[in-house]
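subagent[fold] <- orchestrator: predict structure for attached chain, return tokens only, no commentary.
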Amino acid sequence: MATVPARQSRAHQASGLIGANTWAPKNLLGLLFLVIITIYFLTPLYWLAINATKNNTDLFSSFGLWIAHFNIAQNLADLFSHQDGIYLRWIENTVLYAVFGGLASTFVSVMAGYALSKYVFRGRRLVFGLVLGAALVPQITLALPIYLLESKYGIANTYWAVLLPSILNPLGVYLAQVYASSSIPNELISAARVDGASEFRIFWSIALPILMPGMVTIFLFQFVAIWNNFLLPLLVLSDPKLFPVNLGLATWNFDPAAHELIYNLIVTGSFLAVLPLIVMFLFLQRFWRSGLTFGSVTG
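subagent[fold] -> orchestrator:
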């Protein structure tokens, strides 16, 4: 009679133990806790999706977690035509700020993190300490100094007023340094130098492909941070045509003469503004997961 290999037998035993332990009381409590936490975090998004389908009357007269009259088509038509379709302009501005700011920030962070990881120079520890210290500073404390600097140099109330501060990301530099230290062997760089490759060629052709999971993680963090950034645009922008979508919707909500008449448009616009973030995470989640665990397991 054929015998089952020892490795396969152990695998079947392990899978059987995992299946048997799944329904243990302590595991059930943990599963229940995770379900409760998941419901807690998804309820606001569910509320937003449901109420984006309601008109202004149903928004206040119906149960908030259930559908009333399905009015999403009219809401979308009114949203895109309100104030000469400025909502589309806000979405375009937000995409511009988040995509270009995120890409530029990721590239700068990777270059700085790679240099801190692979080059030995005087003051490297000091520079890395300053990067860590900057990552711990709350961004809200920097908003006013940034506004004063931009006003001094005449770039306030322009696209650059939001884009330039978004390029510098101390947390991204730290993450890039960690990824580069754990994933790029020094022997690989030395071998490339012996073969005559320039430092730029080594960085561009060898380091960047290896750092791709980390780059995606840094880009996602910065993309979400810029997309949700509210205080900086509020301080440095005064032209509604330059507003990101969250600031633009806030101006509708703060207008005492009109916001009660367009609550359904504000809710629908908020729901549409969340969708790109969900799509980004679903599309890049496999890179994001590998980036978060990069270098944590060694062979």
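orchestrator: received. Logging for downstream: The chain has one domain: 80-292. The two ends are 36 Å apart (CA to CA).
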